[in-house]
Amino acid sequence: MKVIGVKDYVEMCQKAKEIVVSTVRSKQKVNLGLATGSTPMGLYKDMVEDFKNNGTSYHNVTTFNLDEYVGLDGGSKQSYRYYMNTYLFDYIDIPKEHIFIPNGKAKNLEEECKRFDELIQKSGNIDLQILGIGRNGHIGFNEPGSRFDSRTHVVKLSESTRQANSRYFPSIADVPTHAITMGIQTILESRKIILLASGDSKANVISRLLTEEPSSKLPASALKHHPDVLIIADEKALQYVASK
Ligand code: GLP
User: Fold this and answer.
1) Can you tell me the distance from the alpha carbon of 233 to that of 244, in angstroms, rounded to the nearest whole number?
2) DSSP string, 37-86
3) Distance 214 CA to ligand 1 centre (A)
4) What's the pLDDT at 243?
5) What distance in Å separates the CA atoms of residue 21 and residue 50, rounded to the nearest whole number?
6) To test the ligand 1 pocket, which listed residue (165, 196, 236) has its Cβ within 8 A of the most ligand atoms?
7) Is the pTM of this model over 0.85?
8) Rounded to whole angstroms, how far apart are CA atoms 83 and 171?
9) Residue 179 · residue 154 · CB < 8 Å
10) 244: pLDDT confidence band, cut at 50, 70 and 90?
11) Does 39 contact ligand 1 (Cβ within 6 A)?
């Protein structure tokens, strides 16, 4: 894992945008893996701005999102599909049929997980995967205890994750109890991975990630098994890390 330390959230987003844009411009066809949460919002804003100003085209880009809540459809404001439309897809030239997000309303969730995972593999896997990190070390919704060889699956959300994400819902009772998430193995099959971390609330988990041995107690530590992972973290997220 390589770490780039940046000043703040704005700089973190700029750096990530530069890498996304140069990846999109470097190949005929690119598969992007996308994350949600508050962390990548600024990255998506910068991508939209770059699309407007520099015309970077997403016509040949296919996207796969990491996760989706079980029980929410794209019309629900808290769904990750709604989030992606609102922050990115509605403003760039990506063809709608190139957008893949797990369907949290699927009748057969197991089938949906299998379908989604196979789709990624059939498409030739992800070229560049964007990740945020949960305060407990989750990536996607792979909670502590998740197997490193897991593929796309249904997870029960931990109470701490439901609590952390309740800020987007009217009340904690409205936060779904389950989600579909790309598995850790699925994520590790991406050619390049960028993990973004910003702010005090990520300081503890980033220090753990950089110092602990890989173990399922800290799902993000699986990234140590990957040859091309870049962590872009700001000063606040790196405050407990000795040499920045
Ligand atoms: C959420 C998402 C993750 C995200 C993480 C951090 O629950 N499932 O993909 O990376 O938690 O969220 P935030 O960026 O809001 O801190």
Assistant:
1) 10
2) SSTTHHHHHHHHHHHHHH----TTEEEEESEEETT--TTSTTSHHHHHHH
3) 20
4) 65
5) 8
6) 165
7) yes
8) 18
9) yes
10) low
11) yes
67 in ligand 1 pocket by Cβ < 6 Å? yes
The identity of residue 234, as a single letter, is D
> Is the distance from CB of 151 to CB of 186 less than 8 angstroms?
yes
Q: Tell me the pLDDT tens digit for each residue of 78-115.
A: 999 999 999 999 999 999 999 999 999 999 999 999 99
Distance in angstroms (rounded) separating the CA atoms of residues 34 and 67? 9
8 A C-beta contact, residue 75 and residue 85: no
Tell me the residue length of the chain.
244
Please give the backbone phi and psi of residue 179, each rounded to the nearest 5 degrees, phi first. Answer: -150, 160
Which residue numbers are catalytic? Answer: 67, 136, 138, 143
Q: Which two tokens stand for residue 224?
A: 């140590």
Please, where are the H alpha helices in the chain?
9-26, 41-54, 80-87, 109-122, 159-165, 184-188, 203-211
The answer to whether the CB of 66 is under 6 A from ligand 1 is: yes
Tokens of 77: 């404001």
Helix/strand/coil percent split, the chain, to 5: 40, 20, 40
CB 109 within 8 A of CB 53: no
Whether 69 and 82 have beta carbons less than 8 Å apart is answered as no
